[in-house]
Amino acid sequence: MVLESQTSIQLPILDISQPLLSSSFSSLAEACKEWGFFHITNHGISKDLYDKIRLLSEHVFGLPSETKTKLGPFSSAKTYTPQYIASPFFESLRVSGPDFNGSAQSSADVLFDQHNSEFRYNSTAAYLMLFYV
Questions:
Q1: pLDDT digits (tens, 9 = 90+) for 57-89
Q2: What total number of domains does the chain contain?
Q3: Does residue 1 belong to any structural domain of this protein?
Q4: Does residue 64 sit in the same domain as residue 83?
Q5: 17 and 68 inside one domain
């Protein structure tokens, strides 16, 4: 027998077209506690930029495991986390502060060889956004 759920899931939405009110922070905190994430609207990221970031993301995470693990937990960079280490559902790549640009560039230098300049020298903003989109 198959049971069907009648529950409709509505993700918490954060509209950033207007300045955030203090009341927004409590609902944002609640969304983070209850859901762990939320949907941001009116962020100003164009479809074109989103598509470029998505392509970059697919390229980065499509690299061979041997390449990505050069940034893994046992490397000096420690910016790549393989699937099943932190989550059975995804792998991750992060940038570290306080020099986020330098961190992103260091990872790019390891991941992209000299012959792949389209991705290696993609804008730092797009590279950084890869981790937040």
A1: 888 888 898 888 888 888 887 888 888 887 888
A2: 2
A3: no
A4: yes
A5: no
Q: Which two tokens stand for residue 95?
A: 């940038």
* Interior/surface letters 4-40, b for 16+ CB within 10 angstroms, e for the rest: eeeeeeeeeebeeeeeeeeeeeeeeeebeeeeeebee
Give the structural domain span for 34.
7-44
d(CA 29, CA 55): 31
105 lies in the same domain as 53: yes
Whether pTM exceeds 0.70: no
Nearest Cα to Cα of residue 129 among 70, 64, 49: 49
Gap between the Cα atoms of 30 and 27, Å rounded: 5
From CA 51, how far away is CA 127, in angstroms rounded?
A: 13
